[in-house]
Design goal:
155 residues, alpha+beta, 8-stranded mixed beta sheet, globular
């Protein structure tokens, strides 16, 4: 665990009940933003085999999360970034993302890729601010109209 003032970052995996609860809230948030298209994206958001999860606690309440999975031999794919609406604006997403980057780098990965949505302006701003570069939509997101993809060299 990493302590940052009253925020605590915990490395865990997909089995964390707090992570699972936050993911349910994320799915509701996404369904509200993309009501007609979220079914197409849900198939790419499975977390039942993710071993690299970060959950942030404010005191003892889980308020944010993110995870990564192997994308290829040199890269990870950042997934399921979420901060509870009542905790936004406190830098939690930045803490999560930086911890995921650090963890991936410790494991020998050289790059991170990710996908977010066109209606998630706060996420696009975060990734740009933390030096992720916009790239063409990759893989399953290549023809998805609401996808925006990014990458970053780690280290």
């Amino acid at each position: 665990m990493i302590f940052t003032g009253i925020m605590i970052l915990k490395r865990t995996d997909h089995s964390s009940p707090d992570f699972q609860a936050l993911i349910k809230q994320l799915d509701l948030d996404l369904r509200g933003r993309y009501p007609d298209d979220q079914d197409d994206y849900d198939q790419y958001n499975k977390v039942d085999a993710i071993d690299h999860v970060v959950v942030v606690y404010d005191e003892d309440r889980a308020v944010g999360c993110g995870c990564f999975k192997t994308y290829d031999a040199n890269a990870v794919e950042i997934k399921r970034m979420f901060v509870h609406p009542s905790s936004r604006g406190k830098g939690i997403s930045k803490l999560v993302l930086q911890e995921l980057e650090k963890w991936a780098y410790e494991l020998g990965f050289k790059k991170a890729v990710l996908e977010t949505g066109t209606k998630q302006h706060e996420a696009i701003g975060l990734y740009s601010k933390l030096n992720f570069s916009r790239i063409p939509n990759y893989g399953q997101y290549a023809n998805m109209p609401y996808s925006v993809c990014f990458e970053k060299v780690l280290g």
